[in-house]
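Bench notes, afternoon.
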Amino acid sequence: MKQALIIIDIQEAFFLDSQQNLWNDEMVINNINSLIAWARHNEVPIIFIQHTDAEDVDFAYGQPGWELYHGLHQQAEDKVIQKPTWDAFFQTELAQYLQEQHIEQLIFAGAQTEFCLDTTIRSAFSHGYHHNILVEDAHSTLSNDVLAAPQIIQHHECIWHNRFVRIQPVAEFQHAD
C-alpha cells in the first residue's frame, strides 16, 4: 500500500511565545523528525500542510508565525500545501496530489489535535482513505479553559482509534542507517 506522510501545521506560531507552545513540543518535534527520516529512508512522500489565514495574524501569509517551524527537517523536494481552513482537503490541491501519486494510506502527525488534525483525519476518511495511521506522540495541541492538552489528545485518540485511523507508536517508524 503506497503511503504518504502528512505533517499538519507545525508552524513557527506555536513556538514564538512560550505561553502558546504546543504541549510536549520538543518530544513532538523529535518524533516528527524521526518520521521524516523514516519516510526518506523508505521513499515515502512527505507533505507539509501549512495553515494560511489572512484573518489570523499568527498564520497570515509571510508573517513570522506562518513559516513552517525551523526545527523540522524539511527539504526542497518535500511537498508544501497551503490550506485556508481546518480541513487540508478543502480548497487545496491535496486530494489531486494524492491521487496523482497513487497514495492509498496516509500517516498523520502535526497540530492542533482537536482542530486541523481532527478535521483532516475525518475528511481523509470521507475521501476514501480508510487505512490511515496516526503516530502517537507526534501530534499536539494547547491547553484551553476546559481541558488540559493531554486530556484533549487522549480524548481524540480514543475517538479516532480503529475508526478513522489506527494509532501506532513512533517506535514502529524507526529505521537503521
